[in-house]
Amino acid sequence: MEEKSYYELLEVPRNATTNEIRQAFRRKALEQHPDRGGDPDVFQTINKAYDVLSDPERRKYYDRTGRMERSVEEDFLEGFGRAAGSTLQKEQRQVVDDSKALQQRFAELQEQSHSQSFEAWMRSRNTSSMTVTVETLMQDKRNISEDSYEKVRLPRVRTTTVTRKSAEALRSSLGPPQVSNKLQRSPLALAAECTEVSYHALPRVLDWKECLVAVAFAPVSPLDLFVARRGADALFRDDLRIEAPHVLGNSGIGVVETVGPGVSSLAVGDWVVPARDGLGTFRSLCVWGEADVIKVPKELMPLEYMGLHRELCVAYYLMETVAADLKAGDALVINAANGAVGQVVIQLCRLMNLRAIGIVRRHDNFSDTKAWLEYLGAYKIFADDEPIVPSLKREYAALPKVGFDGVGGLATLKLIRSLAPGSTIVTYGFVGETGAMIPWQIVVHSRVTIQGFDLLDWLDDGTKKSANRKKFVQMLEQMAKLVNAGKLRISMEEIPLGQWLDALAGAEPGMNTKIVLKPLALEGERSREAQAAADLERRQKEDHDRKEALRLAASNLFLGSSESKDDNNGAEVSCYEIAPSAAPWRATLVWLHGNGELPQEYTSIFDRHLISKHPGIKVIMPTPPPQSSSMDWLALDDNDWTTKYLSATASDDLAESDIQLLKNLEAAADKVAAVVNRAREDDRVIVLAGFAQGGVVALYAALTKLADEIPHVITLGAPCVLPHFLATKIKTNLRATNIKCFAGANDDVFSCADQEAIADTLKRALPNISFHQIPHGEHEVGGLEIDALEAIFATLLPRP
């Protein structure tokens, strides 16, 4: 059964007057009133019928559509200045007769008064900055005495920011320009290298006309990525002079947290958007001037969509102005169609019965991108390397009459070639980061009109500034109808501001999502600061406890003497010996090899350069403790030795690796001391010497493990490891030990200067230490080095 119309419910004809409808309503209401036994549902329907038919506007809409209310789409189109029919514009633009206007102007010039001439001269002047009012004077704090207002204190909190590094930091990370320019880096990888997440303190106070704004959402745009890589100077814009390091971000939505003195148009809780580029929206909290922001209605749409206000309004403006004369079934083409502006334009075209043709970059995810845009309502989606016109002609489809260019470069030329003659192109962005490359003959023969549009320039357009800002709010209100009703969507991904590198990864081609950064609110920053302080305190305590444990471990090293002739496990120390070649046996040399050489390697060189001159010398060569598979005394290569331990600078901070090295060194010193103690039983002159690591072990053994001093300790190419630590462990009765440190003049591992500096460091605790350079000597045990050793024995054992 068909539902009755409102006219049938009230039992009046369709041409009934308002008075007749009112009388019929009274009669039917009395009949169906629930208090008189009527049906409540019927009574409710009668009330609705009267509400609609008694209102002339609503009655007209009901007569035309049969519905009580307009749909969201119809309401949007009504506010958009369009109706859903064959023509999208209610009123056609007025055509001006140029010839008549020109004749009229010539006539006016024939008899022109003095005042009219002055007015013409004034119109030829740039008067945008010539009008001075009280309001303009009050905007500049230089015109206000600081004694006349009280500054507002700000909370002491550090804000999270994404900044472009300073020139010095960029040179450090990227190298000189002549080098870095040759390196092949992806644009996003370069952006990651040129930027960093840092934390900066807020100013202490708000000054005149300033306000504290908490950024709620900030979209990442191609402009932001370009500035991140190349800096603002590469834009060649006089209105954007900012030097690195500076905060990135040009768009977003913020909420006013605090207002400063003199602020009249803003209040706490207001929603604001940047009125110019370069304010730096990639941060959680910022101090902006009242004139730097535009107030927008609160709760108009979700905050994340309001953060994309530029993209929404650019799409709205392009469709309402440039595409105003398009009729249902006409086509337009837009590149970067998978961007936020492209997605919005495609959906608006679907609402207006226009054919949207999109161009996107070909990438691995192209098929998914194409499917997504077609789902939004695109008529055709082409890759940037596909021909467009042949495909449309094969389907007998009309060529587009309007093009929207968000890329620039060669992409603009592709747009022109896809348009019908006499069409219009509007450039609104530069994803391609290059200017349009259009041969003049293409422009001439295609009769194309090329325009440019920038939302912020339009909002700050001189005398139209006030009207355009009102229109800007109206645009947002219109777009909010679609957004709130779920009729318009933008694929976006929210990423915390601190995860900047993840945001860059999400901006890779083919992701089909708009990256929107979500900073922390004021309370979130306070919590982060408190957590960071707690973490710092915990790390400091852990570091302090670790250092104390290491200091305690170090203090327990090298405490006792090694009086036994055996090692710590009770086993006799293994040694290789070279017996005296002739009697009498007069001295013993305990020799510690350097870098894992076998003792047998030294036999011939000792015979030629030492024993042949002093046949009464016995040579004992202990083997290292078996803590590793090698014959090295210590698990320490020359590179670590040079970079970590070759320092005459004192340091109380020892790492776990240092403690382990010292433990191995003590074990080796114990074994060497046991060998020396056993050799002492023969009551002959004892000399302890060593090369490289062996020399270090000889020093520690002679100064910390022996009960009494021996005549001489000799080191060859062996700068002491941790000399300041050794100085604290030397026994008092061993400080007079004679120590001679030899270094080859051509030592290519440890320079003479470094070795002499180490010897000077130990001289404060060892007055009898001396440094000697071996002319032409190298980092080895050769004839020159053994000759230096023989010279010591010559003083101890004069020839008979």
The total beta strand count reads 25
How many domain regions? 5
Number of helices: 30
- Give the termini distance in whole angstroms: 141 Å
Unreliable residue runs: 82-96, 565-570
| Annotated CATH architecture of the largest domain | 3-Layer(aba) Sandwich
The main sheet comes to: 7 strands, mixed
Q: So, the CATH homologous superfamily of the largest domain? A: Alpha/Beta hydrolase fold, catalytic domain
- Which fold name fills CATH's third level, the topology of the largest domain? Rossmann fold
Shape: elongated
Q: Please give the CATH class of the largest domain.
A: Alpha Beta
Task: Give the overall average pLDDT.
Answer: 84
Catalytic activity: a 2,3-saturated acyl-[ACP] + NADP(+) = a (2E)-enoyl-[ACP] + NADPH + H(+)
Subcellular location: Mitochondrion
Domain J: 5-66
Family: Belongs to the zinc-containing alcohol dehydrogenase family. Quinone oxidoreductase subfamily.
Please give a structural write-up:
With 800 residues, the protein is α/β, with parallel strands linked by helices. The protein has five domains: 64 residues, Helix Hairpins; 164 residues, Medium-chain alcohol dehydrogenases, catalytic domain (Quinone Oxidoreductase, Chain A, domain 1); 141 residues, Rossmann fold, CATH 3.40.50.720; 31 residues; 222 residues, Rossmann fold (3-Layer(aba) Sandwich), CATH 3.40.50. 41% of the residues lie in helices and 16% in strands. It is built from 30 helices and 25 strands. The strands form five sheets. Strands 5, 7, 8, 9, 10, 17 and 18 form a seven-stranded mixed β-sheet that branches. α18 links the parallel β14 and β15. α11 packs across α12. The longest helix is centred in the C-terminal third of the chain and has 34 residues. The chain is elongated, with a radius of gyration of 44 Å.
